[in-house]
TrEMBL record:
Pfam families reported in the protein's UniProt record: Cons_hypoth698
Membership in a protein family: Belongs to the UPF0324 family.
Subcellular location field: Cell membrane
Bilayer-crossing regions: 53-71, 107-124, 136-162, 182-212, 241-259, 271-288, 300-321
Record's bilayer topology term: Multi-pass membrane protein
Organism of derivation: Nonomuraea phyllanthi
Gene Ontology CC terms: plasma membrane
Keywords of the record: Cell membrane, Membrane, Transmembrane, Transmembrane helix
Protein name: Putative sulfate exporter family transporter
Length: 322
């Protein structure tokens, strides 16, 4: 089923501007689940793809990021990324609590909006104890508001009289999905800058997932009575503090940054990564209950708050660029 869904998702992304293969795959999986086409015998295979294949895709994502290319943006542009991403990730969960949302939902919305959309949500979901239902709500947020940004952000930039160099940085620092950033960049002539800034945000995926996983594990250890094994750990070793696929992502970034990879490899990696991400997110989408999703007004409200926060903070920071 995933093998059939991937080419369909890639075709949709090719002919529908601003819709990436990952977004199309989530929508396709949700549509099939909502019609009852996903039967119980398919679940084990879909679970494998949504976890194992996702991890492989995240590792390969690192091969698209060369540290020298990111550093070439200059410290001011990197500061925009760090400030807007950091503030959004830190402030979104408290806003979620005020809205009465679960910690898992708030964390996943914060991750998707602040870093790189659905793929970041899936990576954080795989590293924490969040549920598939919480992941579904967070993915809906980044798809909805990221798609709206394709139209809204260029209009705002024109109204504000933002010059092209600052528009490129703002686009990369504020918009959720790489495909959405590319759509805005291509339409406004700032594609290279926008995508490079976006990749600088993607670099933050590994440290944020690693730190979050470590902190949640420490909190769980404090709450476990002395002499009692953590839930689900009987007979099993403790999982690594840094998830292995996150370490693999960092290793892939290091390899790409050496400049030793052949051009044939670096040219083919994005297509392979997109296909694997599409497969994983399709599998995740097959677990989404659309009826529950349509009742998630508070999740949509948190998405609006978080999206507004990263757009406002990054715009304010961009306005200070020399």
């Amino acid at each position: 089923m995933c093998a059939l869904a991937v080419p369909v998702s890639l075709l949709i992304s090719r002919f529908v501007p601003g819709v990436g293969a990952a977004t199309a795959a989530v929508a396709l999986g949700t549509a099939l689940a909502s019609t009852g086409a996903v039967r119980a015998p398919l679940r084990p295979g879909l679970a494998f793809v949504s976890k194992r294949v996702l991890r492989a895709a995240v590792v390969l994502l690192g091969l698209q990021i060369a540290v020298p290319q990111v550093l070439a943006l200059g410290w001011r542009s990197l500061a925009v990324v760090a400030v807007s991403t950091g503030l959004t990730f830190v402030l979104t969960p408290p806003a979620g609590r005020r809205l009465g949302l679960s910690p898992g939902t708030s964390l996943l919305v914060a991750t998707g909006v602040s870093i790189c959309g659905a793929s970041a949500i899936a990576a954080m979901h795989d590293s924490t104890d969040s549920t598939d239902d919480e992941a579904a709500g967070a993915i809906a947020v980044v798809v909805l508001y990221g798609s709206a940004a394709i139209v809204v952000l260029p209009l705002l930039a024109s109204w504000l009289g933002l010059p092209p160099d600052r528009l490129g940085v703002w686009t990369g620092a504020a918009v959720h999905e790489v495909a959405q950033v590319a759509a805005i960049g291509a339409a406004t002539g700032v594609l290279a800058t926008a995508v490079t800034v976006k990749l600088a945000r993607v670099v933050l995926l590994a440290p944020i997932v690693a730190v979050t996983t470590s902190l949640r594990r420490l909190d769980g250890a404090r709450e476990t009575p002395a002499g009692t094994a953590p839930s689900g750990s009987a007979g099993a070793g403790r999982p690594p503090i840094v998830p292995l696929f996150v370490a693999g992502f960092l290793a892939a970034v290091a390899v790409r940054s050496t400049g030793l990879l052949p051009t044939a490899v670096t040219d083919s990696v994005p297509a392979l990564t997109n296909a694997l991400l599409a497969a994983a997110l399709f599998a995740l989408g097959t677990g989404i209950d659309l009826r529950k999703l349509l009742r998630r007004g508070r999740v949509m409200a948190l998405g609006a708050i978080s999206t507004g926060l990263i757009a406002a903070t990054s715009l304010a920071a961009v306005s200070l660029l020399g």
